[in-house]
Specification:
By secondary structure, the protein is α/β, with parallel strands linked by helices. The protein is 27% helix and 25% strand. It contains eleven helices and 19 strands. It binds pyridoxal-5'-phosphate (PLP).
């Protein structure tokens, strides 16, 4: 029995198996690829499991990450994993008054602000708590350099201030009390296709940050230049490596921010998928195998309710799973158990000989797994999630949904 079969016999399927040593390895690899002065935010949306988050915080042989969150649920996960409020960056275009109050009350002091009213709301809440919050103005750049799979700038968007009109709103932003306009936040791309595109995008971002600092007379204390670090999603393969990134970033910063090594300003990158993608595998059980008009369908106990409900976030095409299985002898469509033809994990992919009771293992499923899936759809239980360290199980758990009566309801 291999380890996945052993674990699925113990915990059932569908089952996520995460290796915390792999999370630690990814953190070290990415931090080593960046200049040592850089900070690195972990975007919890890729996987908010508290033990994954803790593995990215706890000092080992690498520096610690900080936490980037966008909801009170992620805030709770970050705090549970041991982060303190001052290690957290709160982002997102729709922060509500309630969320802001909770975050500031729990010590969060750095926010990425995405609109004028967002800055007002942050300032108002900070004032009410008698504190000043640092705002990074998120910038939606008018121009971009790399070709990428997910692009978030250069077009009309709910994200960020347009770089070309930021100058017009600056006087109004400066009058808002309760906030300190501490810096800029960029997140122009996700999952860059190669190192050259990533470097081109970062170089562009650094030049734009310098230009905005000068034009807006905004002394920057902190600049988050975004991410785009890539790892295969549910297909075999390794994390990308970035041998030239460190020197390329240093060169661009030497040119545009001569005091960056002294921390003026401080720089950060952010990542979700790269840090956790390779740490996880999804083990699914085969319920049925059937042939329909000459095509084979392998029906699993895991579908888009378990994996890839959002298709890896922003990929609007269906998820395309590939198995890392050298026994592959056949082609079949891997489908889930849900009553919708959209429950397709991989169409006509290579598979081994499979029958009811067998298991398949989807590799590189540690990012955008349960958290980005349609967990509630069709009422199946959430998958079990098992954490390994040193090859040993350190925890096993499952998310539970339950309906709770609200006190304002008729019978509450
Ligand atoms: C989603 C998101 C990330 C993480 O993206 P990955 O592609 O998983 O690295 C980072 N920053 C922001 C602002 C995001 O919205």
């Amino acid at each position: 029995m291999n380890q996945y079969e052993d674990l699925s016999a113990r915990f059932g399927t569908p089952l996520y198996v995460y290796d915390l040593d792999e999370v630690a390895a990814a953190r070290k690899e990415l931090l080593d690829a960046l200049p040592e002065e850089f900070e690195l935010f972990y975007a919890l949306k890729a996987n908010p499991h508290p033990e994954i988050v803790r593995a990215l915080r706890e000092p080992g042989d690498a520096r610690s990450c900080r936490a980037e969150i966008s909801s009170t649920g992620e805030l709770a996960a970050a705090l549970e994993a041991g982060f303190s409020g001052d290690e957290i960056l709160y982002t997102g275009p729709g922060k509500t008054a309630g969320e802001l109050s909770e975050a500031i009350g729990l010590g969060v002091r750095m926010f990425s602000a995405e609109s004028e009213t967002d800055v007002q709301h942050i300032g108002r809440t900070a004032d009410a708590h008698g504190v000043v919050a640092d705002c990074l103005l998120r910038v939606n750049s008018a121009t971009a350099s790399a070709t990428t799979s997910i692009r978030m700038t250069g077009a009309p968007s709910q994200f960020g201030f347009e770089s070309e009109t930021l100058g017009e709103v600056m006087p109004r932003l400066r009058r808002i009390s309760g906030v300190h306009l501490a810096g800029l936040h960029f997140f122009p791309l996700s999952n860059a296709k190669d190192e050259a595109s990533l470097i081109a995008e970062f170089t562009h971002t650094i030049a734009l940050a310098a230009q905005l600092q000068q034009e807006l007379e905004l002394p920057l204390r902190f600049v988050d230049i975004g991410g785009g670090f890539s790892v295969p999603y549910a297909t075999p393969g390794r994390r990308a490596s970035y041998p030239g990134l460190r020197d390329a970033l240093a060169a661009a910063l030497d040119e545009h921010f001569p005091a960056w090594r002294e921390g003026t300003p401080r720089f950060a990158c952010e990542s979700g998928r790269y840090l956790v993608g390779a740490s996880g595998a999804l083990v699914a059980g085969v319920s049925n195998v059937k042939v329909s008009r000459g095509r084979k369908f392998v029906i699993l106990d895991a579908g888009i309710n378990t994996f890839g409900g959002m298709s890896g976030l922003g990929r609007l095409l269906p998820v395309t799973v590939e198995l890392d299985d050298t026994r592959a002898v056949d082609r079949a469509s891997l489908v889930g158990p849900l009553c919708t033809p959209g429950d397709m994990l991989g169409r006509e992919i290579k598979v081994p000989e499979l029958g009811p009771g067998d298991t398949v293992v989807v590799p590189n499923a540690g990012a955008y797994g349960p958290t980005a899936s349609l967990l509630m759809f069709l009422g199946r239980p959430a998958p079990a999630e098992v954490m390994l360290r040193g090859g040993e199980v350190v925890s096993a758990s499952r998310i539970e949904h339950r309906r709770t009566p609200l006190s304002g309801s008729a019978h509450g």
